[in-house]
């Protein structure tokens, strides 16, 4: 929520009433901090923070300063900045000349400013002068239409516009001429709330700079809100940063919180809710890297399981299907050899057990693991593989009675008593992770007799 302040040092205030305002506040603070760092202003004249409210001087927000901040914050996405960095040299190699020429026609505004102009070592001053003359235009149009920049979050035609009747944020804006009846109450268009603020232009600075952008709306206080999002700002993988790298950080969230995500291939925002139960599971993952699994479905398609696993944790959804997929045998080809997923599966089983809420299962899972090791020591490897495939087949087809029959046969053949099996006989569905543990432990890495 935004309001005006009369007859005081600051003329505007904003509070973290929903994620859009929270994100705007984070972006505005980054902008103001930039002004202070560059010596344009002193912080005490720009803003002050009181818990979940920021008061600030709106007159310090100008189009020119905003664009210069864009150039600084998204420097790697500014084609003219790449050119300037290269042209700072006295001599150029062929690769640099090619890159400059590619950048001169990298987007519509670069083509408009430079036309058919081509770089050679003799004309660099002409290029630098053109950049200087058109700097703000180059920044504005590159930013406004960049797939990873303003365009990813907001309506490209809304940049620098005053608050309008339609919200500028992606999927919050509508075609009022075509959709007014469908989004209003009782067919009365006046009942629809079009909440828009000029400050929403600062939202892109609040999200992480990754393909799947994250904004953590832990708005208990603006200070904590800013610090937490600053930690993931430059992360290429905010999921990993949030759920692994920040676990031991003082700014790690330890309460229920909302996370807003925006992927570049989607024209809408999505919401993740991180609850205390999920935080407990993430905190118990011994090796987060074990869930960063690239699973080859075929030569044209890979599944990256980190997102699926973390989403399952957040939504308290069991990951039986992922475990069973990795347990199934894979056929190597001349071009590709499948990795051993045993350690990954072990981690997924541990996570799945926590999702099931079966902390008491730990003792029986240890029993299943040690039983599998004893089996490997007692019977030939080819026999182990045969029984393992039968067990995998039974569990993936949810033929639990058949699974128990095979288990009894294996116990009889190997001479190993399976104490853990009684829990499976009693309630297989609830104790499935014990079965997964046993299958996964029937692995070559555990040793085994020579084949018959």
From TrEMBL:
InterPro entries to which the protein is assigned, alphabetical: CRISPR-assoc_prot_Csx8 (IPR013487)
Pfam families assigned to the protein according to its UniProt record, in alphabetical order: Cas_Csx8
Protein name: CRISPR-associated protein Csx8
């Amino acid at each position: 929520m935004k309001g005006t302040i009369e007859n005081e040092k600051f003329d505007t205030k904003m509070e973290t009433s929903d994620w859009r305002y929270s994100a705007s506040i984070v972006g505005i603070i980054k902008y103001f901090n930039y002004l202070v760092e560059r010596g344009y202003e002193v912080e005490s004249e720009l803003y002050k923070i009181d818990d979940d409210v920021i008061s600030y001087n709106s007159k310090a927000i100008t189009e020119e300063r905003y664009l210069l901040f864009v150039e600084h914050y998204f420097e790697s996405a500014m084609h003219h900045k790449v050119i300037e960095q290269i042209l700072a040299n006295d001599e150029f190699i062929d690769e640099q000349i090619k890159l400059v020429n590619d950048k001169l026609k990298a987007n519509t505004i670069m083509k408009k400013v430079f036309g058919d102009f081509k770089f050679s070592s003799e004309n660099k001053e002409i290029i630098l002068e053109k950049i200087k003359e058109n700097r703000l235009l180059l920044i504005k149009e590159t930013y406004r239409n960049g797939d990873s920049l303003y365009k990813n979050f907001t309506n490209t035609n809304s940049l620098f516009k005053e608050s309008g009747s339609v919200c500028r944020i992606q999927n919050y804006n509508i075609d009022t001429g075509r959709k007014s009846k469908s989004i209003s109450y009782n067919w009365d268009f006046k009942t629809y709330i079009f909440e828009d603020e000029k400050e929403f232009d600062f939202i892109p600075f609040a999200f992480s700079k990754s393909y799947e952008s994250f904004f953590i709306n832990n708005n208990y206080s603006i200070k904590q809100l800013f610090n937490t999002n600053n930690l993931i700002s430059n992360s290429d993988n905010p999921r990993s940063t949030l759920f692994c790298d920040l676990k031991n950080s003082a700014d790690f969230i330890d309460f229920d919180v909302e996370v807003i995500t925006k992927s570049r291939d989607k024209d809408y925002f999505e919401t993740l809710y991180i609850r205390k139960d999920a935080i407990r599971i993430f905190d118990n993952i011994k090796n987060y890297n074990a869930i960063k699994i690239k699973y080859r479905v075929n030569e044209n398609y890979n599944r990256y399981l980190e997102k699926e696993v973390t989403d399952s944790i957040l939504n308290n959804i069991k990951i039986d299907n992922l475990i069973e997929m990795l347990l199934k045998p894979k056929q190597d080809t001349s071009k590709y050899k499948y990795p051993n997923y045993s350690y990954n599966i072990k981690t997924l089983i541990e996570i799945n057990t926590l999702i099931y809420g079966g902390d008491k299962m730990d003792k029986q899972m240890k029993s299943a693991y040690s039983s599998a090791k004893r089996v490997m020591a007692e019977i030939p490897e080819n026999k182990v593989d045969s029984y393992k495939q039968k067990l995998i087949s039974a569990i993936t087809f949810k033929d639990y009675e058949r699974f128990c029959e095979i288990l009894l046969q294996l116990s009889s053949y190997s001479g190993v008593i399976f104490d853990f099996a009684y829990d499976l006989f009693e309630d297989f569905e609830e104790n499935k992770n014990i079965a997964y543990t046993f299958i996964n432990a029937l692995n070559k890495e555990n040793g085994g007799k020579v084949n018959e």
